[in-house]
């Protein structure tokens, strides 16, 4: 998972080049690069980025534990109004089978959305989930 460790170092790409040359190949196309730029978010929002963000929440009768690759919180007037959960996928993906891959990851992303909504007391509709398929420079919002 070397790529995940390197992506953990990236706060925003607007402020310069990737911190490691190994990451540069993932930013040649526009989709992943845009996803990791501050300009991708409203300029009037206070935006906080967490990388490899651990969570532990009670969902129903059980506990849900995990790490979110990238969590972006948007605040207005000091209050968190929305969040974006981003999960980086490093597996090779056949673009013609992308829908199958997205559907396979959907339960994981739904669980992450629930965890963030619970943790930050947000309506689940205020939490978006995004899959970033690095091998094909494709970003899919769920």
Q: Could you outline the blueprint of secondary structure elements for this entry?
A:
Layout: H1 2-7, H2 30-35, E1 46-59, E2 62-76, E3 79-89, H3 98-120, E4 127-133, E5 138-141
Describe this structure in words.
- This protein has 142 residues and is of the alpha+beta class.
Summarize the structure in short.
The chain has 142 residues and is α+β, with helices and mostly antiparallel strands. It has helices at residues 2-7, 30-35, 98-120; strands at 46-59, 62-76, 79-89, 127-133, 138-141. Strand 1 (46-59) and strand 2 (62-76) form a beta hairpin.
Question: Which short descriptors sum up this protein?
Answer:
36% strand; 3 helices; five-stranded mixed sheet; globular; alpha+beta; 142 residues; Lambda Exonuclease, Chain A; 5 strands
Euclidean distance between termini CA atoms:
24 Å
Percent strand equals: 35-45%
Provide the residue-averaged pLDDT: 89
Q: Which residues sit in consecutive blocks of at least 5 with pLDDT less than 50?
A: none
Write the CATH fold name: Lambda Exonuclease, Chain A
Order of helices and strands: HHEEEHEE
């Amino acid at each position: 998972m070397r790529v995940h460790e390197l992506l953990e170092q990236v706060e925003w790409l607007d402020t310069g080049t990737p911190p490691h040359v190994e990451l540069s190949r993932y930013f040649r196309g526009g989709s992943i690069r845009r996803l990791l730029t501050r300009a991708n978010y409203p300029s009037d929002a206070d935006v906080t980025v967490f990388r490899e963000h651990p969570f532990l929440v009670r969902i129903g009768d059980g506990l849900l534990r995990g790490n979110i690759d990238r969590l972006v919180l948007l605040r207005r007037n000091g209050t968190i109004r929305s969040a974006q959960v981003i999960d980086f996928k490093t597996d090779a993906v056949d673009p013609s089978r992308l829908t199958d891959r997205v559907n396979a990851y959907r339960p994981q992303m739904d669980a992450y959305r629930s965890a963030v909504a619970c943790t930050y007391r947000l309506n689940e509709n205020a939490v978006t989930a995004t899959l970033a398929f690095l091998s094909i420079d494709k970003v899919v919002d769920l």
